[in-house]
TrEMBL record, chain A:
Protein name per the record: Metal ABC transporter permease
Domain of life: Bacteria
Alphabetized UniProt keyword annotations: Cell membrane, Membrane, Transmembrane, Transmembrane helix, Transport
InterPro entries: ABC_BtuC-like (IPR037294), ABC_TroCD (IPR001626)
Family recorded in the similarity comment: Belongs to the ABC-3 integral membrane protein family.
Membrane topology: Multi-pass membrane protein
Keyword Transport: yes
Primary location: membrane
Family annotation (SUPFAM superfamilies): ABC transporter involved in vitamin B12 uptake, BtuC (SSF81345)
A Pfam family: ABC-3
From TrEMBL, chain B:
Stated name of the protein: Metal ABC transporter ATP-binding protein
GO terms of molecular function: ATP binding
Organism annotation: Mesonia profundi
Residue stretches making up the ABC transporter domain: 8-240
Family: Belongs to the ABC transporter superfamily.
Coiled coil: none
Stored CDD domains: ABC_Metallic_Cations (cd03235)
Keywords: ATP-binding, Nucleotide-binding, Transport
TrEMBL record, chain C:
Keyword Ribosomal protein found: no
InterPro entries attached to this UniProt entry: ABC_BtuC-like (IPR037294), ABC_TroCD (IPR001626)
Record-annotated membrane-spanning stretches: 6-28, 37-54, 60-78, 90-107, 145-163, 175-198, 204-224, 231-250, 256-276
One Pfam family cited in the UniProt record for this chain: ABC-3
Record's keyword terms, sorted: Cell membrane, Membrane, Transmembrane, Transmembrane helix, Transport
Family that this chain belongs to: Belongs to the ABC-3 integral membrane protein family.
Keyword Transmembrane: yes
Compartment(s): Cell membrane
Membrane association type: Multi-pass membrane protein
Domain of life: Bacteria
Name used for this protein in its record: Metal ABC transporter permease
Length: 371, 246, 386
């Protein structure tokens, strides 16, 4: 398949449009999941929707995408409420509750799926695609559904922007200002569940949660504004969708879910390492830079203490007396000489006037901060 | 009429977490215009008391009235400064944004803050000496600065009653001075301030009213009348002297 | 029952037991989701190992895959330490990425690898008995039986050897460290055992369902007992029961064995969740109702002790001032009267000497923050019997 097919082929265009929209809504709503510390809830919800998919098929006997979505939605919601029930009513902690519901619902779903496979109804094939996602099965109607949901959630987000932001940052305070936090909570949770269910056909039950988390986690690294973070997350999500679909469509036998997730993981990796303000790389560089400067400063003040007792401050001293001083290296000496703070002649050093002035200010400041 | 109503009136308030009692049959009247400290040992229910006044926690018995009406009807009259540790400071937002949140209550649902709200927020930032940090990401502020931001957020609410949960916890001496000056100024302007406080030494210097709390209400009144050994012993047990001379 | 059927049930039972042991500690240490992360992220390790060994039961493959599991834990902890994202997000990011690599590796090499996606998700328990281990030409049973048997034996021996340390570090990390048990070594030891077990079980039940075998028996047991030893035994029992019942259910429905095992575990958990004597939903509901009554009674008594003027002690005051519903007020009043804690004359309630003493005592307990205070009091004053 050629790249140009992408722009001429109607099916491909539909699919690409679908995954783009899906990626965008996942990034948008995923930001909320990440900031509410509900990252793993998405994983539980998506797994919990599997029995709903299977039951919808068994009960109706037809493979209608919308019916299956409703089944998934119902069983995902049951799973969510049961998790909350377990945490509230028993001594089990949320991690156990999540793992329980995730694996038990999924297991039951798999039981039903294998049961369906043995059913005489020849129509059964194709439910497998909900495990790892198959974007190729998207049709125009699916894209319309996705676009509508995205539009609605965008409007809701804009309408309640102020309230949702407040809730994310400080839920108790939100309550004291007179806002109904329960309503806001239900609002945002239902949209997250909706996004998950919509993504099942494309990304699949098993990996859907990553689609929600990864773009948001990547976006968080580049900005300190919630609005920008959500926009960036949508963009990362959309690109993951497009690239993932393109790559998996160009290969045989490759589900879209894993590819999209890997592209999104790539965004995360790049962001973790290369983000200028938070990234690991620049943080490490800054850390080293600070340490080096600290060494220089320490060495210079040490020299200052030796020098200040002499009448002639530029009087030379042996380098070896510095050896007792921790943190001193040859490199620090050359660095100091480069900055014309000291002079080196043979195995002796002497301080310049510039170095003396700088050191004395530093020394005095140090003294002050110790008071 | 309003002047005769107490700022806060609490009757027979009992609160329990998982049916383990934390506040017992509290009766408390806070007159308007006082600067009051709530003191008591750890686990005495000080934060819980504040949260029950604000309706964050539901009591199992008793009632709270703000200027004679339930809190729900008086939301706009009360400002809250939560404990600094209660929120995630890595949240993607800047100082000015947090202060603006104080205006959300009076705006109500859906309506967005405009120039007027922004101006008020900037003024509040200036009052707490944080104007130059208005665009700073909140995680890059020091503990004292974060506390000032929270105070500014409450100031913007322009309320009559201020409830503060340990505003001096983990702040530097300068911030503590700055905060107490603002509190005193607010009291002069006729506001009522209720502050959960830990440092017994500074109570007489900072406050004019005090409530002793240890699950039960021990005493409440003017500092010069009731801040004495007797009440301290009742609240903290025989070791109270250690707490004072620390 | 054919010998193949017996063998399948035996393997399933051993797998379930092997999973339940580390699972108990993961649940108690609030690290249950780590098992989810490990079970997904070992997939690339298994696929790579399979390329090398061409044998799913090879010890080398198991070690290689288990290593991927431990690396996952290290990676998650590294990301958590950078503070770039929250702890749970770190887990949620790492394992889908590694799992995706595994799935893609399988898909790209579908022709060379006899591993398919169904096997990844469901395991191949039904075929396990056909891969036999032969020593010197004699058949000594299915390979996977030996593999999981060895893993189980190792983890039981480690459990017995380090029981004290594990128990201590699970319930009191600080104390364990001061007593000289390195929490780090125990932590990574547990992670290694979990990884090896999950790899060993993966072959039988697949990536996601192994999580059910790790978490569900332990969680179910935790709702029934407080004793670590009993919890371990119960978890193993639930695991074995689900293995055998699940096998027959799968037989009946002609469906996946692993799926049936999980479903049985789900039903077990649901029943215990509802009916467990201490922790179950019903008993918690009734206990909370009882506690609400008790606390209300104490509130009322304390109120009487606190206030001497008759207005505050008037029976009707209960309703309007303490803000109680009529029914609740009536119940509390009755309860206090029945236990001889109060007397009522002219609609004014006052404490009896017994009530006086009880309230004093209750207050002392409550202000010293004793957990069991109320229970002790109840027995002391023969309360709530009437």
């Amino acid at each position: 398949m050629e790249l140009s097919d992408f722009f001429t082929n109607y099916t491909l265009r539909t699919i690409t449009l679908g995954t783009t929209v899906l990626g965008a809504i996942c990034g948008m709503l995923g930001s909320f999941a990440v900031l509410r510390k509900q990252s793993l809830l998405g994983d539980a919800i998506s797994h919990a929707s599997l029995p709903g998919i299977a039951l919808a098929f068994i009960l109706t006997g037809v493979k209608d995408a919308n019916l299956i979505l409703i089944g998934a939605l119902i069983s995902g919601l049951i799973g969510t409420f049961w998790i909350k029930g377990i945490v509230r009513r028993t001594r089990l902690k949320s991690d156990t509750a999540l793992g329980l519901i995730l694996s038990l619902f999924f297991g039951f779903g798999m039981l039903l799926l294998t049961f369906i496979q043995k059913m005489p109804n020849a129509n059964q094939a194709g439910l497998d695609k909900y495990l790892f996602g198959q974007a190729a099965t998207l049709v125009e109607q699916d894209v319309w559904v996705m676009a509508t949901v995205t539009g609605v959630s965008l409007i809701v987000l804009l309408l309640f922007w102020k309230e949702l932001k407040l809730l994310l940052f400080d839920a108790d305070y939100t309550k004291t200002l007179g806002f109904n936090t329960k309503f806001l909570d239900i609002l945002i949770t239902s949209f997250i569940v909706l996004a998950i269910v919509m993504g099942l056909q494309t990304v699949g039950v098993v990996l859907m949660s990553a689609m929600l988390l990864a773009p948001a986690a990547a976006a968080r690294q580049w900005t300190n504004s919630l609005g920008t973070m959500i926009i960036l997350a949508s963009i990362f999500g959309a690109f993951s969708g497009v690239f993932g679909t393109a790559i998996s469509a160009s290969q045989d036998n490759l589900s879209t879910g894993p590819v999209i997730v890997l592209v999104a993981a790539g965004f995360v990796l790049i962001s973790f390492v290369f983000s200028p303000s938070r990234g690991i790389l620049f943080r490490e560089l800054r850390f080293r830079q600070n340490r080096k400067e600290l060494h220089l400063k320490k060495t210079l003040t040490f020299m200052y203490r030796i020098v200040k007792n002499h009448d002639d401050i530029t009087h030379p001293h042996a380098i070896r007396i510095l050896n007792n001083f921790q943190g001193f290296t040859k490199k620090t000496l050359t660095k100091l000489e480069e900055q014309e703070l000291i002079k080196i002649a043979g195995n002796e050093w002497s301080m310049t006037h510039k170095g003396y002035d700088q050191a004395s200010t530093m020394y005095n400041e140090l003294g002050k901060s110790h008071d | 009429m309003k002047d005769q109503l107490p700022a806060i009136q609490i009757d027979d308030l009992t609160v329990a977490y998982d049916y383990k009692p934390v506040l017992w049959d509290i009766d408390l009247v806070v007159p308007e215009g006082v600067l009051m400290a709530i003191v008591g040992p750890n686990g005495a229910g000080k934060s819980t008391l504040i949260k029950s006044i604000l309706g964050i926690i539901k009591p199992i018995a008793g009632s709270v009235k703000v200027f004679g009406k339930p809190y729900k009807k008086q939301v706009d009259k009360v400002a809250y400064v939560p404990q600094k540790g209660s929120v995630d400071w890595d949240f993607p937002t800047v100082a000015l944004d947090v202060v603006m949140m104080g205006t959300y209550g009076s705006l109500g649902w859906i309506k967005r803050p405009g120039q007027k709200e922004k101006k008020a927020s900037l003024e509040a930032l200036e009052k707490v000496g944080m104007l130059e940090f208005k665009d700073r990401q909140i995680s890059q502020l020091s503990g004292g600065q974060q506390q000032r931001i929270f105070l500014a957020r409450a100031l913007v609410q322009n309320a009559s009653i201020y409830l503060m949960d340990e505003p001096f916890q983990g702040v530097d001496a300068t911030t503590e001075k700055a905060i107490i000056n603002i509190l005193k100024e607010l009291r002069k302007a006729g506001k009522t301030l209720i502050v959960v406080h830990h440092d017994l030494q500074t109570v007489p210097e900072y406050f004019d009213w005090v409530t002793f709390l240890n699950v039960k209400g021990i005493a409440s009144g003017k500092v010069k009348d009731i801040f004495n050994d007797d009440n301290l012993t009742k609240t903290y047990g025989i070791n109270y002297k250690v707490a004072v001379t620390q | 029952m054919t010998s193949i059927q017996v063998e399948i049930q035996l393997i399933a039972a051993l797998v379930a037991m092997a999973c339940a042991i580390p699972g108990t500690f993961l649940v108690l240490r609030k690290m249950a989701m780590i098992s989810d992360a490990i079970s997904h992220s070992i997939l690339p390790g298994i696929v790579l190992g399979f390329f090398i060994t061409q044998d799913l039961n090879s010890p080398l493959l198991i070690l290689l895959a288990a290593l991927t599991g431990v690396i996952t834990v290290v990676m998650v902890e590294f990301i958590q330490k950078t503070g770039l994202v929250k702890a749970d997000t770190a887990i949620g990011l790492v394992f889908p990425a590694l799992f995706s690599i595994g799935v893609i590796l399988i898909a790209k090499n579908a022709n060379d690898v006899h591993l398919d996606i169904d096997a990844v998700l469901l395991g191949e328990l039904a075929f396990a008995p056909f891969d036999r281990l032969e020593v010197g030409g004699t058949d000594i049973g299915p390979k996977s039986l030996w593999v999981i048997g060895t893993i189980l034996l190792i983890s039981i021996s480690l459990l017995i050897l380090f029981f004290k340390e594990l128990k201590l570090s699970t319930f009191d990390k600080g104390l364990a460290a001061t007593l000289g048990f390195s929490p780090m070594i125990l932590h990574y030891g547990l992670m290694t055992v979990s990884s090896v077990t999950i790899v060993g079980a993966f072959d039988a039940v697949g990536a996601v369902l192994v999580v059910a075998l790790v978490i569900a028996p332990a969680a179910t047991a935790y709702l029934l007992t407080n004793d670590l030893k009993k919890m371990l035994v119960l978890a193993c029992l639930f695991g074995v029961f689900s293995a055998i019942a699940g096998y027959w259910m799968a037989n009946l429905l002609d469906a996946s064995i692993a799926g049936s095992m999980t479903t049985v575990l789900g039903i077990l958990f649901f029943l215990v969740y509802l009916f467990a004597p201490q922790q179950g939903v019903f008993s918690v509901y009734f206990r909370e109702r009882q506690q609400r009554k008790e606390v209300s009674l104490l509130v009322f008594l304390l109120h009487l002790q606190n206030h001497s003027d008759s207005k505050e002690r008037h029976v009707n005051h209960l309703q309007d001032h303490i803000n109680w519903q009529k029914v609740q007020a009536r119940t509390v009043l009755d309860l206090a009267k029945r236990n001889n804690l109060i007397q009522i004359s002219n609609q004014i309630a006052s404490l009896t000497p017994k009530g006086e003493e009880f309230t004093q005592e209750a207050l002392r307990y409550i202000t010293t923050n004793k957990e069991t205070a109320i229970e002790e009091l109840k027995t002391k004053f023969f309360l709530f019997r009437g």
